[in-house]
Design goal:
Blueprint lengths: L23 E5 L9 H15 L2 E8 L6 H4 E7 L2 H11 L3 E2 L2 E2 L1 E5 L1 H5 L19
Antiparallel strand pairs: 1-3, 1-6, 2-3, 4-5
Amino acid sequence: PKKQAMMAPPKKQTKKLRGKPSEVVLLRNMVGPGEVDEELCKETEEECQDKYGGVQECKIHEVQGEVRAQEAVRIFVKFSSIENAVKAVVDLDGRFFAGRQVCACFYDVRRYENEDLLPDPSEPELPPELCG
C-alpha cells in the first residue's frame, strides 16, 4: 500500500493536551474499522521515531462489538520518555491522515502494560467534531 503522508491541520491554535502526560500515546480515528493492515504499525512507529524519537513499541487494538467507528481502531505508541510523547501528542492531535482527523491523547502506562486497551470512561473525550 502507498504510504499516506499526514497533513497538518489548517489552523494552529494553542493545544490543550488530552489526558495526564505519560510515555504512552493513544491515537484514535486514524483508520476506520477493517482498515488495519500489517504495514500500519510499522509505518506509525517509523514516522513517530523519525519525528519525535524514543519509540519503544507500537500496538494496534481493534475493538470488537458495538463501538463508534472513531473508537474501533486504537493505535498505541510507547515512548522512552514523557518528553517524546508530549511532542507526539502536540503534533499529531488534530492532524489529518487518509482523510480522517486524528485524536491523540496520553494513555495510562499501567493500563497499557496490563494489556487493558479497551475504551474507558476515564479517557479524554473525542472532540465533538469527530463524533458527528
